[in-house]
Amino acid sequence: MSARLLDITADRYHADEDSDTPTLNATVATALILETPAHAKQKHPRLMDGVYVPRHTDAMDEGTALHQLLLGDDRVDILDYDAFTTKEARAARDESRANGRVPMKRKAWDEIALLGDSLKAQVAAFPVVPPLFVDGMAEQTIMWDEPSGIEMVGCRARLDWLRSDYATIDDLKKSRSAQSRRWQRAFWQLGYDIKAAFYIRAVRAAFDVEPVFRWVAIEPEPPYALSVFVLSPQALTAAQAKVDVALDLWAECLRTGVWPAYPAVVQTIELPAWLQPVEWDDSALDEVPF
Fold first, then answer.
1. Residue 65: in which H helix or E strand, if any?
2. Ranges of H-type helices in 126-191
3. Most buried among 35, 128, 176, 247, by the most CB within 10 A?
4. Phi and psi for 116 in degrees, rounded to 5?
């Protein structure tokens, strides 16, 4: 499979419907590194135990709405219902989903619109070159073959925003805190570095360009504070090494059909340094007046 740029719905992308064999994406690659192959298998729509059902959460829908407000990606149906509890409201919601769109209650849309207005203003004013979310394409899907140490691996990625010159990938994250120290703590726990390295490979495979990956983190409550982050060269090199490991694990597990979880050994919990006991001098008791 040569690299392909596809215009498909998010549901079709997440279901992995456009390849003869299961493909690796950033979510599954992250699970391979931060969890186990067994967890990665369960996150894949074509390998998981049970029947894959597309997930639609309020947080995911709000993220799509925010993308629409910032990027002009028209995928949200604004429905004049207070809740999806009546038969009529549920029918309207389900029809929207069936058409590959995102149904959203008017009140929820109005709340997201306030955040979106602040986001657009801050993004436009942010002093960075090239500008954020300008001169590009939203929600682009790339499929390509990536070499591993075992064999070629089919991969897929869906990019929030890719510049027309392929120089940057901009990724929008609604975050409880965009304060640098707090956001970076969550960054490593969630494996965002792996996603960046994976997406950079997608653009490299499709367009022979090495882009810069930029995260735009915005808080969902006033004052809607915003921060922009990039990986250092050292951090990106380490992230690419993680992707190499994920590719090898994926290829091996697909080849053997074995998806191991945690090791079947009793593991010892060591006392961390910050809990090490302080040496106690018994002679100090002589000075204590009982």
1. helix 58-71
2. 180-190
3. 247
4. -65, -40
What predicted TM-score, i.e. pTM, was given to this entire model? 0.86
Q: How far apart are CA 173 and CA 213, in angstroms?
A: 13
Task: CATH number for 4-55+126-280: choose from 3.90.320.10, 3.30.420.270, 3.30.2270.10, 3.30.43.10.
Answer: 3.90.320.10
Give pLDDT tens digits for 185-195: 999 999 999 99
Q: Within 10 A of 227 (CB to CB), how many other CB atoms are there?
A: 19
Q: Which residues contact 3 (CB under 8 A, 6 or more apart)?
A: 142, 143, 144, 145, 202, 205, 206
Q: Are 30 and 191 in contact (CB under 8 A)?
A: yes
7 phi and psi angles, rounded to 5 deg: -105, 90
Question: What does the pLDDT look like over 221-237, one tens digit per residue?
Answer: 999 999 999 999 999 99
For strands 152-163 and 76-79, give the pairing: unpaired
The one-letter amino acid at 46: R
